[in-house]
Structure formats: structure tokens, C-alpha cells
Design a protein that fits this description.
alpha+beta, 50% helix, 15 helices, 14 strands, 511 residues
Length: 511
């Protein structure tokens, strides 16, 4: 999960969630508010229709019984949400209201059958000052008498807030001189009916949009990340030595990949092809240069054959033969393609190789009067390197002793075998290293005339190929330079994983 949080795929998902959420909120919040307003308008419109339904009945009669039956026939009246405020009889004696004092909340008739002008019932028997003359009231009254009188006097409908909701006051003309007021109660629940469901539906739609955007972003991210990972894996394989690796830029694997990653894949493939060409050219050059050495080697072999008998002649012929073998090996290695190289390194006995090479150099040591000592090479010591490579490394170490120390300088070779490694110590009684770090850098060693500065670097690469290392220091016994070559070894003879480069003095060195 932690890895996903920092990946490109997770970044795309977060961007999709943020973008979709903002778009959803920008559209769904106004839509929800519009639904809420629509529900409110619908409730008041329904109340207006209920009030308008009594208009024909009031235009025909103001008889309380008839009006009561008309109120009961409506939905609002049946639910006790409607009241009718009838006007009083005309001042000219147009008749008396029947059932005086008989209706709910009705008022007593004045002498002559007319209600007192300017008085209206508020449902409790109290009288309030009003504009037009008021009569009986039918139904459950919730609005204040002053609001009812105002609606009748102004001749326009409006709503007033009452406990539990709102009351719609709708004036209805009974005749040319009188106006009744129809009161319809609208509860708070009617104003929000269906709004909660609408908000839930809209929230579900928003979540669905976010989920779809996450799914689409995840699929797009998977394609992009897959292409990037294939490119990274190919780069690692190329760095590990697989020169045949290529990035697919066409076909099913590359389908859906961004154009930029495809261009990167094309560039990687072109680079890999160029690397293969350069390595092939380098191998050919190494083979050609090595082949050019055969002519002077042939002359040396013929001259060595004419030296006659003796230790020096035998040593010369042995050296020429070995040089020819090395040149042939270089040519074969250069001609061989990297993919044809063996996967597992063949091991050898380090003690046997070291005894052989020290024996070879001992002849020259005796001629120069050098004391030498070999210790620890009396038992089998397997290491996972080729015999020729180890012999070349030992020759490079001993050659440095003869090249960089004066005649008569003593040297020693010690072989230490542990459970997981073999350590070869080559020390001398010379002046030692002035700059060990520079001596380990390829081509930067200052060995004087005839030195290429590659000897120790070749030995270091051999050590690191087994997971070991090469370190320089000062010999605690002879007082001069000491080189420690550590080769990792395994009982089954396989090569351990390549370790990182470790330079510097080890614990076996005197500082």
C-alpha cells in the first residue's frame, strides 16, 4: 500500500477523484437546491388548488352546511387542514346567516341578523379589528384573525407562518360586495417531501461517477505504469548484460501506451542496437589486435627454440607458450558473442594455481636475489573463477612486486581459507603505496614506464565478480605494501551474486 501511495497510478486515481468530485458538486448541489425549491413550490401550488376548489361552491352559496360539506369533500378539508372564513351579511339587510353560533368558531348574530361590522372571530370567541365585516368560520383555524382580515381586505392571497408550517390565505369573492377567505394549512413536512430521497439519489449518482472515474483512471494508470515498468525492466536487463532485450512498441502489450512512452521505447531499442554494434566492433578490434601479436610471438617462439637447454631457456619457452595461449584465448573470447558465454563460471583450485604461479616467478626472484615465502597453499582451496583468470590475477599482483620494488626486495604470498571466502595476501618490503585510492582507479596508477595502470583494476573486477573485494594497505610483517584479494567461495562451486564495490583497508592491514 505504501508503494501504491507514491506511484503514478495512485496519483492518477487521486486526480480523478478530485476532478470528478468537484464536477459532481458543481452540478449536484444546485440540482439538489432546485429539487428542494420545487418541493416547496409544489406544496403551495397544491394548497392553492385546494383553495380554488371551493370557489364555485362559495359563488353559489354561503350556507354553512353546504360549505362544510364542500370543505369535507376536499383532501385538505378531510385532513383538517382547511378553514373557510365567511363574510357577514350585507349591511342593507340582504339576509341573515343561518345557524348563527352553530358553526365551530362561529360568532353570534347581531340584532337584525348582521354581524358587527369591523369584527372577526379568531376561533376563540374573541373579536379582532378587521377591514371587511366578518361572519362565521368553518373548519380548523390556524391563522390569526388580523391576517385573515388583511387577506380579505386586500383581495390578494399570501402565506403566513403558523405553528407547524404555513397557512395559505386565499380570498374568494362571494358577490360584488363580499369576500370570503379560504385558509389552507401547509405542514413543514409537505415542503420537504421527497427532498431527502432526491438528495440520496443525487449522492448515489455522485458516488457512482467518482467510482467510474476511479476505475477509468486506474485502467489508464495501469497501462501507463505497465509501459513504464516494462521500460525499466528492459533497462535493468540491459545493464545486467542481456543485450537481446527490447521494449515492445507495437502489438497488444503496447496498446494503450502513451505516445511519449512509445517514443522512449523506440529510443531505448535504438540505444540497445547501438550498444550491440559497438560491442561487436570492440570484439572485432580486440580480436584483430590480438591476431597481430601472433607474428612477433612466432618469432619469439622460434628464437626461444634455438636457445638450447637450461633453466633460463626453459623459462623463456614456457613464457612464450603461455603468452600464445593467452592470445588465443583473447581471440576466442572476442569472437564469441556475449549470449554464447557460459552462464556459470567454472571453478578451480586456488592453492594449486598460486603454487604454480609463485613457482614460475621464483626463478626470477632467485636471479634478483629476492627472498620470498609462500604459506597456506598446501591444501585444496576451491574458488568459483576460471583457472586462467586467477592465474592472470596472481601474475598481475606478483608482477607489481617485481616492477615497483628494487632488486633484492623480499615478498610473501599467504593464502587464508575461511568458510565463505579465500583471501590471498601479497606483501613486500618495498616503499608501499603513496596513494592507495588512486592505485585502485582504472588507468590512473603511476607505475612508471611500461605500466598501464590496469593490473589492479583487473584483479579487483575478478574479486567483485565473485562477491569479494580488493584492498590495499601496509604489510605488518615486511613493512611495505600489502594487497588483499578476497574471493567469495561456495561449497557447490556456483558464483555468488555480484557485490558492490568495497574499497579501503581491511582489518588485516596495519594502518
Amino acid at each position: 500500500m505504501m508503494r501504491l501511495r507514491h506511484s503514478l497510478r495512485w496519483a492518477l486515481i487521486k486526480a480523478a477523484v478530485a476532478g470528478t468530485t468537484m464536477v459532481a458538486l458543481a452540478f449536484l448541489i444546485p440540482l439538489g437546491l432546485m429539487v428542494q425549491q420545487t418541493a416547496r413550490d409544489r406544496a403551495f401550488t397544491a394548497a392553492e388548488r385546494q383553495a380554488a376548489a371551493l370557489g364555485p361552491a362559495l359563488a353559489i352559496t354561503t350556507d354553512q352546511d353546504a360549505i362544510a360539506r364542500a370543505v369535507a369533500s376536499t383532501d385538505a378539508g378531510a385532513q383538517g387542514r382547511m378553514a373557510v372564513h365567511l363574510p357577514a351579511a350585507g349591511a342593507a339587510g340582504a339576509g341573515t346567516q343561518s345557524g348563527a353560533g352553530g358553526g365551530a368558531g362561529g360568532v353570534a348574530s347581531a340584532p337584525g341578523g348582521a354581524a358587527p361590522a369591523g369584527k372577526v372571530s379568531d376561533g376563540s370567541g374573541a373579536a379582532a379589528v378587521a377591514g371587511p365585516a366578518a361572519g362565521a368560520t368553518i373548519g380548523e383555524v390556524r391563522a390569526l384573525a388580523a391576517d385573515v382580515a388583511s387577506a380579505g381586505g386586500q383581495g390578494r392571497s399570501f402565506t403566513v407562518e403558523v405553528p407547524g408550517g404555513y397557512a395559505l390565505l386565499q380570498p374568494v369573492a362571494v358577490d360584488t360586495a363580499r369576500t370570503a377567505v379560504v385558509e389552507v394549512f401547509v405542514a413543514d413536512g409537505d415542503l420537504t417531501r421527497g427532498v431527502a430521497t432526491a438528495w440520496q439519489v443525487l449522492s448515489g449518482v455522485a458516488l457512482g461517477l467518482v467510482a467510474v472515474s476511479v476505475l477509468v483512471a486506474d485502467r489508464m494508470g495501469a497501462r501507463i505504469v505497465g509501459s513504464a515498468r516494462r521500460l525499466a525492466a528492459a533497462a535493468r536487463s540491459l545493464g545486467a548484460g542481456d543485450l537481446a532485450v527490447r521494449v515492445p512498441v507495437d502489438g497488444k502489450q503496447a496498446a494503450g501506451s502513451p505516445e511519449e512512452l512509445r517514443e522512449a521505447g523506440h529510443a531505448f531499442n535504438a540505444m540497445a542496437d547501438r550498444v550491440v554494434q559497438l560491442l561487436a566492433a570492440e570484439r572485432e578490434l580486440a580480436a584483430d589486435l590480438s591476431h597481430r601479436l601472433r607474428t612477433p610471438l612466432t618469432v619469439l617462439r622460434l628464437n626461444a627454440a634455438s636457445l638450447g637447454e637450461g633453466d633460463a631457456a626453459d623459462a623463456t619457452r614456457h613464457a612464450v607458450a603461455q603468452l600464445e595461449r593467452e592470445v588465443d584465448q583473447i581471440i576466442r573470447s572476442a569472437r564469441r558473442a556475449p549470449e554464447d558465454a557460459p552462464a556459470v563460471t567454472v571453478g578451480c583450485d586456488a592453492a594449486e594455481v598460486i603454487r604454480e604461479r609463485v613457482g614460475f616467478w621464483s626463478a626470477l626472484a632467485e636471479d634478483e636475489g629476492r627472498r620470498w615465502q609462500l604459506a597456506g597453499a598446501d591444501r585444496e582451496t576451491p574458488v568459483p573463477v576460471q583457472r586462467g583468470d586467477l592465474a592472470a590475477a596472481v601474475d598481475a599482483l606478483l608482477g607489481n612486486v617485481f616492477r615497483h620494488t628494487g632488486v633484492g626486495t623480499a615478498f610473501s604470498v599467504d593464502v587464508l581459507a575461511t568458510g565463505s571466502s579465500v583471501i590471498v595476501l601479497v606483501g613486500d618490503a618495498g616503499p608501499g603505496f603513496t596513494d592507495p585510492e588512486a592505485a585502485l582507479k582504472r588507468g590512473e596508477g603511476h607505475g612508471g614506464e611500461g605500466s598501464t595502470g590496469l593490473g589492479l583494476d583487473i584483479v579487483r573486477k575478478l574479486a567483485e565478480a565473485t562477491g569479494g573485494d580488493l584492498a590495499l594497505g601496509r604489510s605488518a610483517v615486511l613493512g611495505g605494501a600489502e594487497i588483499r584479494l578476497r574471493l567469495r567461495s561456495r561449497p557447490d562451486g556456483t558464483v555468488p551474486a555480484r557485490a558492490g564495490r568495497r574499497r579501503g583497508r581491511g582489518s588485516l592491514f596495519a594502518r
